Structure formats: structure tokens, C-alpha cells
TrEMBL record:
<dbReference type="InterPro" id="IPR013784">
    <property type="entry name" value="Carb-bd-like_fold"/>
</dbReference>
<dbReference type="Pfam" id="PF02446">
    <property type="entry name" value="Glyco_hydro_77"/>
</dbReference>
<protein>
    <recommendedName>
        <fullName>4-alpha-glucanotransferase</fullName>
        <ecNumber>2.4.1.25</ecNumber>
    </recommendedName>
</protein>
<feature type="domain" description="CBM20">
    <location>
        <begin position="10"/>
        <end position="119"/>
    </location>
</feature>
<keyword id="KW-0963">Cytoplasm</keyword>
<keyword id="KW-0328">Glycosyltransferase</keyword>
<keyword id="KW-0119">Carbohydrate metabolism</keyword>
<dbReference type="InterPro" id="IPR013783">
    <property type="entry name" value="Ig-like_fold"/>
</dbReference>
<dbReference type="GO" id="GO:0004134">
    <property type="term" value="F:4-alpha-glucanotransferase activity"/>
</dbReference>
<feature type="domain" description="CBM20">
    <location>
        <begin position="154"/>
        <end position="266"/>
    </location>
</feature>
<dbReference type="GO" id="GO:0005737">
    <property type="term" value="C:cytoplasm"/>
</dbReference>
<keyword id="KW-0808">Transferase</keyword>
<dbReference type="GO" id="GO:2001070">
    <property type="term" value="F:starch binding"/>
</dbReference>
<comment type="similarity">
    <text>Belongs to the disproportionating enzyme family.</text>
</comment>
<dbReference type="InterPro" id="IPR017853">
    <property type="entry name" value="GH"/>
</dbReference>
<dbReference type="Pfam" id="PF00686">
    <property type="entry name" value="CBM_20"/>
</dbReference>
<feature type="region of interest" description="Disordered">
    <location>
        <begin position="924"/>
        <end position="962"/>
    </location>
</feature>
Length: 962
């Protein structure tokens, strides 16, 4: 590679003029520049990149720029949108572009690069879910031409060589790509005379054409072996050659993006791993059950199977660990999903009988978490004691260990210490409370007396890896995407907080402000992240976490993606989720408040407890409550005593005082009312800076606020709105643009974000910029003023669903509220009749059809909602029992099991055909039912369901034109 910066001006050097040209609409104050790997383009320092100048051509805004480089110059480059200070506002997605100069280019000749902005949506088709699974080809194209290759000579002195390049990620076998257009060289719109493209690798097809015309229109098309021709949709492309300039180009490189087809759309099924039921499992779904689930998905027309998190959550050693979002380790898999029958091919009759007995005992309506875990680990230990030597010395185990020992050793050591000290709270582990590499190596040493215990944890993780890998490979073979789930937090008593304590803010707790799920907010209990510390090694912990997931999954859901913009942070002593603040956020300063005439900060930030409030809440018991929990610091004014001035302290004191006969109210009511009192504040003082404050969420609902004067009320209402809805937008956007790219670039999985709840305005533009697919639940519309979402109006970059694991199922929701049901029946279904009291199959079919026919890239349905299509499955299980999670209950038992086995569902051809017809009639892609000689046989999409994109004029790229 030649570096222009190495040459001095005195030396004779053959130079070439490079001209960049890209259509892109910008807003006021935005500019485009090119930045690349060589010094002449900034050496990837955007501030040193090449600025482009805007030129209007018809209804397009074209950005142009020129540089001189030596012949033989090679470089990678990308386009960036910047502000007037060259601060990056956005960057194009996809791979870096490359510059290859023609070998025969002469001194002073011009080569123009006509590029199109690479959108994040286009880049999705190079993610593993689509590239390696759905569009996986058992055939391969022969490399016919080097990327970017020009002919070495010009045939005519005044001719221009145009290099066409198009990406065709979905091209079928025995298909050729062509350019056809208005000029004679492009066949005058006839494929017989068109320009045939050659395969250049990485889904790229390229060809060169000698052009004499100043302009021509063209399109790309694909020509199959059977004679079928597929012309790209949308308006004609246009090539303009400026032959009137002093230095007309001799070479033009056209980078035309992706072959324009109808938007690809797919469908999937969602079910937690623990909820799956099969005839082989021991009381809970197991990784090997996924193979049968994949078969059912294919038969039903689904390209995707979505799971909840599958990481080990064995923190408390009881049913609380059923909560799948509180991981003990973000790397280890959960032993719950182990199939013990697959641990050995040569098990004793006694163990086989024990497995058969356990299968019968654990085959209940719901998951018995504790009994299932105990049974599986007990059986696994017996098999391990017999086969440990052969397994641990095998080449496959050694390979697994060497690739995973960085997390596997700490995990095994943690599990040993957890069981030895009978707690996962590593602060209680004496000298082992502080993690160190030296202590770790001693703990896992082969010379230790507990080495067998350590190896047992290795052994379990090895077999979990084998079983999930087998299921994942099977899914890929069947063209089914296995979609995982990335929890936003980790348990505070976890391997990760033990090994990397500086990455977490251990004196805090994570949650969510009041929203659709809970009017009092949520407290998940996880410590918040120390993003500043994480950034020091470019988020290595996150990158390793995603790389581990990518071993099994080709797509993933980012749980609570809002947490990467800002997190709802609560003090560690909080139990409920209401009195928190956003981190990061710009607080209200004491100076700012004083300028507005707000000065009594103690009054505003301490619980407002007056005698009349106590009498209203507790009636005749108020004096007894006050004497136990409060001090009267001035006449009729109270404050909480030191031993009960937090929610956790209140709970502890109530337990200590349990059974006091002088209390007329129940303990639950006393706790609830005391919690209300302790949260009766207007401002929350920052515990790390006493001169900073945060407005309490829904502060107008407090009696503390109602007792203020009108001036203070008006000021605080205005500052409240500013804090929650205005001043943070830029900060949160910048925060997400620092953290999320590190996740997205650490694997090639397809990423979706759960963007439900209180959504800041900055979220959706950033997700669009990064190519993140959002979530749309019909009963939780993101559009203001709507009670029910309108699936036909959803954007393409979304996953749509009638329900999810965090809310009631479609059937249960239908039965919950008669008035709401009537409004839905009238306004959405369009009937003035009295709706049925239950979600009958016809209603279910209508709702599901709404979703599969939406423009959303994915329609993913909980299995419970699909079973509502058949009355047989709805009459054998009450709807209320199908709900997976109750977000209002922090100690909810995650134990739902499907009431029908996968084997039974496979035998039910009626429901499979019903679902497949729904998917097929919507125009969504279907996985092949069978393969013949590597060729997939797919269903034909009815012409009336094909969405036609008819554009007018030339293609516009980038931001929408105002």
C-alpha cells in the first residue's frame, strides 16, 4: 500500500484524482465527510477526514469532494455525518468500503466513486440469522472476478469505464445477475443484451462497461436457470457522466448497495425453555427438546424460535432462582435444562430406573423448580462419579475447557464457595470475599481436597454446552433462527460481581419507573453498571458475553434496551421502584432551584409526615404507629427513626414487632402505608452530592407537593417536565451511541431491542441508526392517544406480537376487562355486536392475522397465543394460568409449563396447517418443509399478497426529505 504522506513535494510522482459522490439529505447544521485508513483521509480520525460539499441536482442533494493520491493507492473508507465542529452525528453501517485503482490509470486521470449511504437495515442481511441461517446456501458461487477490478486498458480514448457493483445476499442457486438499462451497452432494457455481472465474493456481483453516453437509466435483475427473471423493485437508477468538465472522469465506480427486493418478512414462536413440555423431559423443558420444537416451528411456517435467558440463576438455592433475569453467571448455562439421559450411553439399570421414576414424579402442571434441580443434580453426580475420568481426559472436554476456562474456573470456584458457606453473598466469605487470580488457582487446583466438586461443575457445563450446541446446529440446518435473550442486569451475588466488582455500582439497585406494567415502578435488585469503568477496556466484559451467546444463538433480544440510554437507579436499601433517578442524567442544581425561589431543601427532600396524615392513614392506631416508627421533631411534624428510615429497615422492624396486639391494622397494610409515607417527598437529594436534586416521579401525586404554595408548585412542575422529557435527550443519545455499538460489533447476531415503557424521544432514532429492531405490543402502543396499536401501521424495523412474557396472554387479556374488550371488538375488529366473553378461535385468528399481515420484519407469537386457535387447547387450561410473569411481584414464581407436549403438537396436523396458512397468506417467508439435493422447496406467495413498491423519480438516500 502506498502512503501519500511519505512523499515530499519535490519528488516526481504520478498522481490520480479521486472524486467522491454520494446522495444524502441532511438537516441544517449537518455536513458529510469521508474518513479512511490512510493519512490523506484522516487515518480514521474523523476530524481529519475529507469534507464534502453539497450540490443540488434536481430533487437530490449530492455531496462531492476530491483528493489527489499516488497511483497504486489503496484505502478503506466510510462516510460520516458531522456537525459544524466535526462531531460525529451518525455513520453509515456495513463493512468498510475499499479503494482499488486501475493498474493502467494515467497521471492526472479522474476516477469517480458514486456511492449510496449504507443503512443499518441493509446491513441486517449480513447478520448470521439471515446470512447463515435463513439464506444459508448449501451451494457456493465460484469467485469470477477480484473485488473492484477494472480493465487495464481503455478501448477508446474518449470512453469511460463504469464499474457496476451490487450486493445480492438472497440470490438463489443457478441464478445470474445483470444490469439492463436505456443505453445500447446495457441492452436497451432487454436482458439478452444486458451486462452480465460476475461474482466477486461476499454476496457482491460486479462488471465493467464502456460508456459513451452522458447519462443513462438502469436497473439490476436476476435471471434464473428456469428462465424466470426478477427485476429489482422501485424507481430506475440513473448514471450521470459529466463530460463537460475540464477533467472528465475516465473511470466511474458505482457502489449501488443491495439488490432492491420486496421487504423480507418472517414469523416465529416464543416460549421460555422451562415452559416446554416433552415426553423425554424431567419436569422442565430441556435443551435437546429444542430439536422437536424446531421441527414443529418448520411445519407451522416459522423461521424463528425465541427463548428467555438460559444462564445459570442458582443464587438462593430455592424457587426464587426460577427468575431467569437474575443470573449467577452471564457465561454459564443453567443445569435446569440438562438432559441427564444424554450424559452417558452406558448407564446402570438403577440410574435408568431412577430417571423413569423422576420423570413420572416431576410431570406436573407447573415446574417444581427445587425438586427438579435437586433430582437432576443428584442423578448427574452419580453418573459423574462413574465416568469422570473418561470424560475429563477426552479431547472434546479439553478443547471445551481451553476455550472457556477464563469464566469456567471462577464459576466452578464460586459454586463451591456458595455451597461451602451456604450463601451466594460473597461478602460473607471471609478471605475469599475479595477475588484474586492467586486465590482462584488454589481453589481449582488439582491438589485440593475438593477438586472433584470443582470438576463436577466443569462436567455439567460441558454437557450443557454439548446439548445446546447440538440443538443450535439442528436449528441452523432447518433454516430456523434460535433467538436468545440478553438480560439487562446480573444478580448482586453473582460470579460477575465477585470477579469484576469495579464494573458495578454495588450500593445501587436497578429498576424501571412507573409504566404500563406497574404504577409503582419496579425494583429488580441488580446493581447498576459502572459504564465509565467498563469503557476503559472498550467494554470487554460485554463483548465476551455476546461472543459466548453467539456460540448458540444467531439472534438475540436486548432486555430493557432503555438501560443502555439511561437506567432507573434506586438506592440499595429500596424495596419498591418509585423513588429513583435516571443515571446518567443532568440533575437540578441547588443554584438552579434557588434562582427559581426554591430554597427549603430539607422540607422538599425529607418525608412529609404530619399528624393529620397519620390519622388519615392509620385511624385510631396512628399514635401506636408513630411511637414505634417516628419521632416528633416539632409540633405535629414527624420524621422516621434511625432504625426504620429506609424501606428495608421498615420491613426488618415490622418482622421484629410481628404479632403486636395493639396494632389494629394488618402488617401488610402498615408496611404499605409506611412505604407511602417514606416516599412522600418532592425532591430526591443526590447521595453523592448534597447540592444536586432529582424530582420524584409523579411528584404531583404526593401530599408533600399539594401542601406547597402555588409559586413553588408551578416551578417544580416545570422543572419536573424538563428533567424527565427534555434536558436529558442529548446525553442519553450520546450514552447509547457509546455503549450499544460495542455490543452490536462483538458478534454477527441479529439484534432486537425491547423498547417498552417510558420511551425518551431519542431512543427510536438511535435504534434506527444502529439497525436495532424494536418491539411492538398491540395493547401497549408507543403512539400517543392510542389505546390499541395498529399493526398495519408498524414500521418495518420492528417485531410485532399480541403479547409477551411480561404480560397476560392474548386469552387472559381478553377476559380481564369487559369494557376494554368491548372497545377492542368495536374499534379494532369493527363489530357492534356484544363480544364473546372468551377469546374464541375466530377472535384469536383475527388478532394473529392482523400481526402476520403487518409490515413488521418479524411477527413472533407466544406459543400460548397460537394454541388459542384451537378450542381443544383452550378448554383444558384456564387462561389466567398461562401467564409467565407478573412484573408487579418481585418474588413471582416462574414455573409455567405448556399443558400439551411437543410430541402431541407434532401429531396435530390441523393446528400446524392452520398456522402455516396464516403465515403463507401474509406473504411472509416460510422455511422449507424438505430439501432435495440442497434445493429448498418453499411455498408460493399469492400475487395479491406481494407488496409492490412503486417509486417516482430517482432513489433518495439518507434522511427523509423535508
Amino acid at each position: 500500500m502506498v502512503n501519500l504522506g511519505l512523499f515530499s513535494g519535490k519528488e516526481t510522482l504520478k498522481t490520480v484524482n479521486l472524486s467522491f459522490r454520494i446522495p444524502y439529505f441532511t438537516h441544517w447544521g449537518q455536513n458529510l465527510l469521508v474518513c479512511g485508513s490512510e493519512p490523506v483521509l484522516g487515518s480514521w480520525n474523523v476530524k481529519q477526514g475529507l469534507s464534502l460539499n453539497p450540490v443540488h441536482q434536481g430533487d437530490e442533494l449530492i455531496w462531492c469532494g476530491n483528493i489527489k493520491v499516488p497511483s497504486g493507492f489503496e484505502c478503506e473508507y466510510s462516510y460520516y455525518v458531522v456537525d459544524d465542529n466535526r462531531k460525529v452525528l451518525r455513520w453509515e453501517a456495513g463493512k468498510k468500503r475499499k479503494i482499488f485503482l486501475p493498474e493502467g490509470i494515467q497521471d492526472g486521470e479522474v476516477i469517480e466513486f458514486h456511492d449510496l449511504w449504507q443503512t443499518a437495515a441493509d446491513a441486517l442481511f449480513f447478520r448470521s440469522a439471515l446470512k447463515n441461517v435463513i439464506f444459508h446456501k448449501s451451494w457456493s458461487f465460484d469467485l469470477e472476478t477480484p473485488v473492484g477490478a477494472f480493465p487495464t486498458k481503455l478501448d477508446q480514448e474518449d470512453s469511460v469505464i463504469v464499474h457496476f457493483s451490487i450486493s445480492c445476499p438472497k440470490i438463489e442457486e443457478d441464478t445470474s445477475a445483470y444490469v439492463i438499462g436505456s443505453s445500447a451497452q446495457l441492452g436497451q432494457w432487454k436482458i439478452q443484451g444486458g451486462l452480465k455481472l460476475s461474482y466477486a465474493g461476499e454476496s457482491s456481483w460486479e462488471a465493467n462497461c464502456f460508456s459513451l453516453n452522458s447519462s443513462s437509466t438502469y436497473k439490476y435483475c436476476q435471471h434464473g436457470k428456469a428462465g424466470n427473471i426478477s427485476l429489482e423493485v422501485g424507481p430506475q437508477r440513473e448514471l450521470c457522466v459529466d463530460t463537460t468538465s475540464k477533467e472528465p472522469p475516465k473511470y466511474i465506480s458505482l457502489s449501488d448497495g443491495i439488490f432492491r427486493e420486496m421487504p423480507w418478512r418472517g414469523a416465529g414462536v416464543a416460549i421460555p425453555m422451562f415452559s416446554v413440555r416433552s415426553e423425554e423431559d424431567l419436569g422442565v423443558g430441556e435443551f435437546l427438546d429444542l430439536k422437536l420444537l424446531v421441527d414443529w416451528a418448520v411445519d407451522s411456517g416459522f423461521h424463528l424460535v425465541q427463548l428467555l435467558p438460559v444462564n445459570d440463576t442458582s443464587v438462593n438455592g430455592m424457587w426464587w432462582d426460577s427468575y431467569p433475569y437474575s443470573s449467577l453467571s452471564v457465561f454459564a448455562l443453567h443445569p435446569l435444562y440438562l438432559r441427564v439421559q444424554a450424559l452417558s450411553k452406558d448407564m446402570s439399570k438403577e440410574i435408568m430406573q431412577e430417571i423413569m421414576d423422576a420423570k413420572e414424579q416431576l410431570d406436573g402442571k407447573d415446574v417444581d423448580y427445587e425438586a427438579t434441580m435437586a433430582t437432576k443434580l443428584s442423578i448427574a453426580k452419580k453418573i459423574f462419579s462413574v465416568e469422570k475420568d473418561s470424560v475429563l481426559t477426552s479431547s472434546s472436554f479439553k478443547k471445551f475447557f481451553s476455550e472457556n476456562e477464563e469464566w469456567l474456573k471462577p464459576y466452578a470456584a464460586f459454586c463451591f464457595l456458595r455451597d461451602f458457606f451456604e450463601t451466594s453473598d460473597h461478602s460473607q466469605w471471609g478471605r475469599f470475599s475479595q477475588f484474586s487470580k492467586d486465590k482462584l488457582e488454589k481453589l481449582v487446583s488439582k491438589d485440593s481436597v475438593h477438586y472433584d466438586i470443582i470438576c463436577f461443575h466443569y462436567y455439567i457445563q460441558f454437557h450443557l454446552y454439548l446439548q445446546l450446541s447440538e440443538a443450535a446446529a439442528y436449528a441452523r440446518k432447518k433454516r430456523v433462527v434460535l433467538k436468545g435473550d440478553l438480560p439487562i442486569g446480573v444478580d448482586r451475588n453473582s460470579v460477575d460481581t465477585w470477579v469484576n466488582p469495579t464494573l458495578f455500582r454495588m450500593n445501587t439497585s436497578t429498576g424501571a419507573p412507573p409504566d404500563y406494567f406497574d404504577k409503582n415502578g419496579q425494583n429488580w435488585g441488580f446493581p447498576t453498571y459502572n459504564w465509565e469503568e467498563m469503557s476503559k477496556d472498550n467494554y470487554a466484559w460485554w463483548r465476551a458475553r455476546l461472543a459466548q451467546m453467539a456460540k448458540y444463538f444467531t439472534a438475540y433480544r436486548i432486555d430493557h434496551i432503555l438501560g443502555f440510554f439511561r437506567i432507573w437507579e434506586l438506592p440499595e436499601h429500596a424495596i419498591t421502584g418509585l423513588v429513583g433517578k435516571f443515571r446518567p442524567s443532568i440533575p437540578l442544581s441547588q443554584e438552579e432551584l434557588e434562582k427559581e425561589g426554591i430554597w427549603d431543601f430539607d422540607r422538599l427532600s425529607r418525608p412529609y409526615v404530619r399528624q393529620e396524615i397519620l390519622q388519615e392513614k392509620f385511624g385510631d392506631s396512628w399514635a401506636v404507629i408513630a411511637s414505634n416508627f417516628l419521632n416528633e421533631y416539632q409540633k405535629l411534624c414527624y420524621e422516621f427513626k434511625e432504625d426504620c428510615n429506609t424501606e428495608k429497615k421498615i420491613v426488618s422492624k415490622l418482622k421484629a414487632c410481628a404479632g403486636k396486639s395493639s396494632w389494629l391494622e394488618s402488617e401488610d397494610k402498615i408496611r404499605s402505608e409506611l412505604f407511602d409515607l417514606i416516599k412522600n417527598v418532592v425532591l430526591i437529594r443526590d447521595p453523592e452530592d448534597a447540592r444536586k436534586f432529582y424530582p420524584r416521579f409523579n411528584l404531583e401525586d404526593t401530599s408533600s407537593f399539594q401542601a406547597l404554595d402555588d409559586h413553588s408548585k408551578n416551578v417544580l412542575k416545570r422543572l419536573y417536565y424538563d428533567y424527565y422529557f427534555q434536558r436529558q435527550e442529548t446525553l442519553w443519545s450520546q450514552n447509547a451511541l457509546k455503549t450499544l455499538p460495542a455490543l452490536l460489533n462483538s458478534s454477527d447476531m441479529l439484534a432486537c431491542g425491547e423498547d417498552l415503557g417510558l420511551i425518551p424521544n431519542c431512543v427510536h432514532p438511535v435504534m434506527q441508526e444502529l439497525g436495532l429492531i424494536g418491539l411492538r405490543i398491540q395493547r401497549m402502543p408507543s403512539e400517543p392517544g392510542l389505546e390499541f396499536g395498529i399493526p398495519s401501521q408498524y414500521s418495518y424495523m420492528t417485531v410485532c406480537a399480541p403479547s409477551c412474557h411480561d404480560c397476560s396472554t392474548m386469552r387472559a387479556w381478553w377476559e380481564e376487562n369487559e369494557e376494554r374488550r368491548s372497545r377492542f371488538y368495536k374499534n379494532v375488529i369493527g363489530s357492534n355486536d356484544v363480544p364473546p366473553s372468551q377469546c374464541v378461535p375466530d377472535v384469536a385468528h383475527f388478532i394473529l392475522r392482523q400481526h402476520v399481515e403487518s409490515p413488521s420484519m418479524w411477527a413472533i407469537f407466544p406459543l400460548q397465543d397460537l394454541l388459542a386457535l384451537k378450542e381443544e387447547y383452550t378448554t383444558t387450561r384456564p387462561a389466567v394460568e398461562e401467564t409467565i410473569n407478573d412484573p408487579t411481584n418481585p418474588k413471582h414464581y416462574w414455573r409455567y409449563r405448556v399443558h400439551v407436549s411437543l410430541e402431541s403438537l407434532m401429531r396435530d396436523k390441523e393446528i400446524k396447517l392452520s398456522i402455516r396458512k396464516l403465515v403463507q397468506s401474509s406473504g411472509r417467508s416460510l422455511p422449507p418443509l424438505d430439501e432435495v439435493d440442497g434445493n429448498a422447496t418453499t411455498a408460493v406467495i399469492p400475487p395479491e399478497k406481494q407488496q409492490v413498491a412503486n417509486g417516482q423519480g430517482r432513489i433518495l438516500n439518507g434522511a427523509p426529505q423535508k
